[in-house]
Amino acid sequence: MRIMATRFISLLFSLLFLLYSGISFAKPTPSFPSSIIRPEKISLSTPTEPYQEKFFTQVLDHYTFRPQSYKTFQQRYLISEKYWGGAEKNAPIFLYTGNEGDIDWFAQNTGFIVDIAPHFKALLVFIEHRFYGKSMPFGGNKDVAYSNSSTLGYLTSTQALADYATLIIDLKKNLSAADSPVVVFGGSYGGMLAAWFRLKYPHVAIGALASSSPILNFENITSPYSFNNIITQDFRGESEDCYRVIKRSWQEIEDTASKPGGLDLLRNNYISASSLHNWLYTAWVYTAMTDYPTPSNFLSPMPAYPVKEMCKAIDDPKTGNNTFTKLYGAASVYYNYSGTATCFDLDDDSDPHGLGGWSWQACTEMIMPTSGNNEDSIFTASKWNYDDRAASCEAYFGVEPRPSWITTEFGGHDIKRVLKRFGSNIIFFNGLRDPWSGGGVLENISSSIVAIVAKQGAHHVDLRFATSEDPKWLQDVRKREVNIIAKWLSEYYEDLDPAY
User: What InterPro entries does the entry give (predicted)?
Assistant: First the structure.
């Protein structure tokens, strides 16, 4: 039996993170209108919004004044005025700070702001991150843009944030909406950008919802063992036997490969030991990240609580004692829940969502230690080794990482003390089943920089479209987020017009 389906993305250097006309705002109240979050029937298909695709002529380099800095590129953004109350009403603008991929993929999977837009009469804008999707500098030629460190050097978080600020200021000017307040939203890396945008451009955005944003996963702030420890807890919490099967499988793969004819067996069945390692590792990690309480298709079509379903497959007595059969059944929950795959290509490094630029970011400023494994880990025991990352980056890109740059630029150390009197109006959401939550803000920093933590939550689950099957804890998270955003807007309008 030759195993076959598409790997979501190669694991090079680092994981992908890795989620209303005639406006009149009343004072925020503890109650939450049930009509804001629109219940949908459970479906693996993702609801879509009819966005207009537009392009903005963006400056390549915001930070120098040499002639070449005035080179430009076409930056894509998606916009919907369907619910907007209009500039004359100073109706708000909800802006999604794009992640490391095609912006339409994130727009299709970020239903929260669509669900609440009718209530707030908000204009919806999704901006694509430079060097991803169609927002490709150097004439839109990806091969040229990705050719070397001289071109890729313009792919940074600070340049991206400046893009967002420049675009939204120009958009507001063109819409004659100078007094329309902007609230930024983002999940994962986009959530990090949303939080940093609020801190760096408070004159552009009045607040930020930063979902599953590991802004503390840098430079000796978060343990390099945290990421994989949470994955271990996710699976071990479902079944001790499930945990043990996965834990011992790595050695069984190696043992099989070392036996006479073992490599041939692996090649016939799984292509190679390393391919099998990566194939399984991807399944366990991404399933833990997206252990949602309802069916989803964000990374791959999966059932509700897919970690539980994986462990059911491993614990199924029908599989007997064959570890490889158990692993295949469990991994199929991630790779073939839809039942449409007839084979899995373990060596397929295709990039369907345009995520390729992340390798560069993971080699320059986004140095987030996540690969440490202690003896109890579901993965083979190992230590985080910065030197290995640095050597790989030097060999691949000819660059030396700057592991302390993010904390230099945006902070992170002693964040509660630093931001308590400096920052405001940020919501940090984290679900504790998400391995990235270990690098998230899990405690309130001040009365207006709030941490919302959900014990059963997964990666930016709060930003997903609401469904009729959402558990109460998730409904409560979203209600709280909406009430906080309503408070920000109410305060803004009071400042804008004291008679409000």
Answer: AB_hydrolase_fold, Peptidase_S28, Ser_carbopepase_S28_SKS
Examine domains 52-220+406-496 and 226-335 and report if their fold is the same. Answer: no
In tens, the pLDDT along 217-230 reads 998 999 999 999 99
pLDDT tier, 66 (very low <50, low <70, confident <90, very high otherwise)? confident
Catalytically active residues are 188, 434, 459
Q: What is the pLDDT of residue 10?
A: 36
Best CA proximity match to 384, nearest among 190, 229, 193: 229
> What is the β-pairing status of strands 123-127 and 93-97?
parallel
Residue 125 and residue 97 in contact, taking contact as beta carbons nearer than 8 Å: no
**226-335, what's its fold?**
Four Helix Bundle (Hemerythrin (Met), subunit A) (1.20.120)
pLDDT of residue 91: 98
Pick from 296, 373, 394: which is nearest to 337 by CA?
Answer: 296
List the chain domain ranges.
52-220+406-496, 226-335
Query: What is the CATH topology of the domain spanning 52-220+406-496?
Result: Rossmann fold (3.40.50)
Q: How many Cβ atoms are within 10 Å of 421's Cβ, its own excluded?
A: 9
State the average pLDDT for the chain.
87
